[in-house]
Amino acid sequence: MTWTNECRDGNRIKNFGKLQGGFRGKPSLRYGEKQTILGGYRWKKIIVNSLDTNEENYYNTPDVVTSLCLIDNIRIIVTLRHGFHILDLTTGKILPFLELQNDKENRFNDGKCDVMSRYWAGTMNLDIENPKPTASLYKLEDKKLTKVLEKLYRSNGLGWDPDNELFYLIDTVCPYTFISIIL
Predict the structure, then answer these.
(1) Tens digit of each residue's pLDDT, the chain (183 residues)
(2) What is the span of the domain harbouring residue 107?
(3) Confidence (pTM)
């Protein structure tokens, strides 16, 4: 595999070409309780569906949902446009947890938890036509937010290899998709 530095200095980037897609949901299966939890950028709500009864519960959010992860049986941590929030499934209340300060050029776009229960969330530049490298990747661990990478365009996909030794980040720049690998 050959690496290039086509987009920015300091990050190893591989161009995998133009990708198609458009699914905006963030599904998450709650183990043992057979529920699917879904939120999406086009919505200001979270849907919790019981796979046993097919019953759906809707929870309104103050802004669009960009990612979500389970905390425990009754709480979900959610990224909205400019911060982390916690949804209590028993009361339906969603409360701010941590806001990004003075970040008018970006919004959260995606996020996932790793096997060590750290919540990784990336932002994207709001200029769709002419994006600038102002976005970042953050790690929320033990109630502390750390900026891990900066000078991104659009964090648009996070993942880990099966051994959890490599972390993958897709930084989408119109119309190409790049994957950065952090060792």
Answers:
(1) 222 333 333 333 333 332 222 223 334 444 445 666 767 667 788 888 777 787 888 999 999 899 998 888 789 999 999 999 999 999 999 999 999 877 889 999 999 988 888 999 999 999 988 889 999 999 999 889 999 998 899 988 888 888 887 888 888 874 455 555 554
(2) 13-182
(3) 0.75
When divided into structural domains, the chain yields a total of 1
**Is 109 marked as a binding-site residue?**
yes
- Taking alpha carbons only, the member of 133, 86, 124, 113 closest to residue 26 is 113
Reading the block at residue 148, the tokens are 């891990």
Q: In angstroms, rounded to a whole number, what is the distance separating the alpha carbons of residues 14 and 181?
A: 9
**In CATH, what number is assigned to the domain containing residue 135?**
2.120.10.30
Asked if residue 147 is part of any domain, the answer here is yes
Q: Is 130 annotated as belonging to a binding site?
A: no
State whether the Cα torsion 103-9-154-137 is positive or negative: negative
User: What is the distance between the alpha carbons of residues 114 and 104, in angstroms, rounded to a whole number?
Assistant: 28
The annotation status of 107 as a binding-site residue, yes or no, is yes
Q: CA separation (Å) from 36 to 21, 63, 79, 122, 146?
A: 21, 21, 18, 23, 29
Query: Is 73 annotated as ligand-binding?
Result: no
